[in-house]
Write a structure and sequence with these properties.
By secondary structure, the chain is an alpha/beta fold. It has a single domain, classed as Uracil-DNA glycosylase-like domain (Uracil-DNA Glycosylase, subunit E). The protein has nine helices and six strands; from the N terminus they run H-H-E-H-E-H-H-E-E-H-E-H-E-H-H. Strands 3-2-5-6 form a four-stranded parallel β-sheet. Strands 1-4 form a two-stranded antiparallel ribbon. Strand 5, helix 7 (about 165-170) and strand 6 (about 180-185) form a beta-alpha-beta unit.
């Protein structure tokens, strides 16, 4: 796997790319993409970093696994390419966004516009085999993305971390809560949302209020 990552992240993460685990992860990803259909496409594996520079970073949203259906995953957690029907979790995210901020439900499921404003849309695992959820877990991606979270916590100040669901909440131990703001809620998947663990969390307005209190510009969600 050719690591092509935005320059602003290179210095921060270079030491990870040189570790043995990352070399074996690269070999695994290369062979998977050769043998099987995998998502997202190779050029989009590091899209979360390409669309959100380290210097502009204000918010981190942690997902688990890329979408594994055709043409859905675009390298940003919860996001799909323009023109792709919104998956159930994204529908619930947009319903909450619409209710929280009193804005229309968004037409495009592509969250690049969030990323470009400083929202790092980070999946814990950056690749997946088509139609096989979780197929690239426990191969090294989690070690890498945990290191990303730790580096952000260490190098930045006053970042808002959004931890949605049990998996994301486990990342709390990687974050210095004295320096950063953390908001937690249930996962937006129908299973969790329909049990009352998602709707009404108001994370979009709360995030903007926190950013403004820290002298930063709000996100245009």
């Amino acid at each position: 796997m050719q690591v092509k990552i935005a320059d602003s992240w290179k210095n921060i993460l270079q030491s990870e790319f040189e570790k043995p685990y990352f070399e074996s992860l690269s070999e695994f990803v290369k062979s998977e993409y050769k043998q099987y259909t995998c998502y997202p496409k190779g050029s989009e594996i590091f899209a979360a970093f390409d669309n959100c520079s380290f210097d502009d970073l204000k918010v981190v949203l942690i997902g688990q696994d890329p979408y594994h259906g055709p043409n859905q995953a675009n390298g940003l957690c919860f996001s799909v390419h323009d023109g792709i029907p919104h998956p159930p979790s994204l529908i619930n995210i947009f319903k909450e966004l619409s209710a929280d901020l009193n804005v229309p439900y968004p037409q495009s499921g592509n969250l690049e516009k969030w990323a470009k404003q400083g929202v790092l849309l980070l999946n814990a695992t950056l690749t997946v085999r088509a139609n096989e959820a979780g197929s690239h877990q426990k191969r090294g991606w989690e070690t890498f993305t945990d290191a990303v979270i730790q580096q952000i916590s260490k190098e930045k100040m006053h970042v808002v971390f959004l931890l949605w669901g049990g998996f994301a909440k486990q990342k709390m131990k990687l974050i210095d809560v004295k320096k950063h703001c953390v908001l937690t809620t249930g996962h937006p998947s129908p299973l969790s949302a329909n049990r009352g663990y998602w709707f009404g969390n108001k994370h979009f307005s709360k995030t903007n209020k926190m950013l403004e209190n820290m002298g930063k510009s709000a996100i245009k969600w």
